[in-house]
Specification:
Blueprint: H1 6-37, H2 41-68, H3 71-95, H4 100-128, H5 134-163, H6 165-184, H7 199-212, H8 216-243, H9 249-276, H10 279-299, H11 307-334, H12 340-353, H13 355-368, H14 371-390
Length: 401
């Protein structure tokens, strides 16, 4: 793999700490809701929706800030907010003051760190590595994130089963603090923002660039549909696994942890795939593999147990991580430097901002129509997103421009 700078390595290490803490907290939250507060599909769907809301509301403003101010400073502020929110959960739980609405609000506050990292890190990357090293850098950054996804849910499940959710959230807070400490030593090249205009004008410029770009428009459309479908699935999976398949917290964590294992496998395979596969099809792998993953999860209705959900989460990790690496490289290659933050923010909003809508849909469908209908809705969505990208001009790309 291409040699990368020590500053990039520091960013990657901070990323894995931040993502690991985020994944532990995200996995522990619905377990805490179900096991402590007796939440069902509707309540866990609402919890996921509220926790995802910052991606919808804050991604674009974060993108403007990432184009205006030093990105390291922005990341540090966000990690501080995330650490405070994560520390508050076990303190309130042990004091008897925690309930579902408070858990959801603290989750939303913690998600601000995820929003800023998702926006600022890709925007900072072209300043830390050469254009020729972008694929290698994105691969390493996503591999670090994959390790967090691999370890986070399983660790959260084990901690919840062993001693309750308080310890899981405490660990998440420590990891967030470690991410901030690593950022303190990061030396960012001098950032040269473009001419400052009104917030509305800068947001409109970023949105317009993406919406009118022949390659970025189908990328964003695919991301919206994928993430809505993913959130439908996430909203009902924990109550489905516990109430209908009879899995305990540790087993649920293990099945969800297969997602991260798949991400690691996909990230390690990406450079090899890129050597013999046309770049457009490299981008399309994730959406296509997601269809197979959804089919495996839907099949668990007939064959209950941990194996099909584990396979499903593994495929959901392996395919889409190749998508993330390749489409991020494409986005960085076609976007002017002064707009990287805003374009990254548009993608972040599409990627995660669609999740509250999907979570609300999944929770409502699971509660009113049953888990089977919710899983069918998710499967149909994954088929649709695969059609969007495979029928677009992205499929015909031979190189990342």
């Amino acid at each position: 793999m291409t040699q990368l700078s020590p500053q990039f390595d520091r960013l990657a290490r901070s990323n894995i700490a931040a993502q690991a803490g985020d994944q532990v907290a995200l996995a522990a939250a619905p377990m805490l809701a179900v096991l402590t507060f007796g939440a069902g599909a509707a309540e866990t769907g609402a919890l996921v929706a509220v926790q995802s809301m910052p991606f919808l509301l804050l991604a674009l403003p974060a993108g403007v800030l990432a184009d205006r101010m030093p990105r390291r400073r922005l990341l540090l502020i966000a990690e501080l907010l995330r650490a405070v929110a994560l520390v508050a959960v076990p303190l309130l739980l042990w004091g008897g003051w925690l309930n579902l609405p408070v858990l959801a609000l603290l989750g939303a506050l913690a998600a601000t760190g995820s929003v800023v990292f998702s926006v600022a890190a890709p925007a900072m990357l072209p300043a830390l590595v050469s254009r020729a090293a972008l694929v290698a850098a994105n691969t390493k950054l996503e591999l670090a994130r994959s390790l967090a996804f691999a370890s986070g849910p399983g660790l959260a499940g084990a901690l919840v089963a062993l001693s309750g959710a308080g310890l899981a959230f405490g660990l998440a807070a420590v990891l967030s603090m470690a991410a901030g400490a690593l950022l303190i030593g990061l030396r960012e090249p001098r950032h040269k923002p473009g001419p400052r205009r009104t917030l509305r004008a800068e947001l409109a410029e970023g949105l317009g660039f993406v919406c009118h770009h022949a390659l970025l428009r189908p990328i964003v459309s695919t991301a919206v549909v994928w993430n809505m479908s993913w959130s439908v699935l996430q909203a009902v999976y924990v109550p489905y696994a516990i109430s209908q398949m009879g899995l305990d917290a540790a087993s649920v964590g293990i099945t969800m942890g297969a997602y991260g294992v798949g991400m690691v496998a996909g990230a390690m395979l990406t450079p090899m795939l890129g050597q013999w596969m046309r770049f457009g099809w490299l981008i399309a792998i994730g959406p296509l593999v997601s269809v197979a993953a959804a089919a495996a999860m839907f099949s668990s209705l007939a064959l209950p147990g941990p194996w099909l959900p584990s396979l499903s989460f593994f495929l959901f990790g392996a395919g889409p991580i190749v998508w993330t690496i390749s489409q991020t490289t494409l986005r960085q290659a076609v976007t002017p430097a002064a707009m990287l933050g805003r374009v990254s923010a548009v993608m972040t909003m599409a990627t995660a901002g669609a999740r509250p809508l999907g979570a609300a849909l999944g929770g409502a469908a699971g509660a009113a129509l049953g888990m089977e209908v919710a899983l069918a809705i998710a499967t149909a969505g994954f088929v649709l997103q695969a059609l969007v990208i495979t029928l677009s001009p992205v499929r015909d790309l031979t190189i990342p421009l």
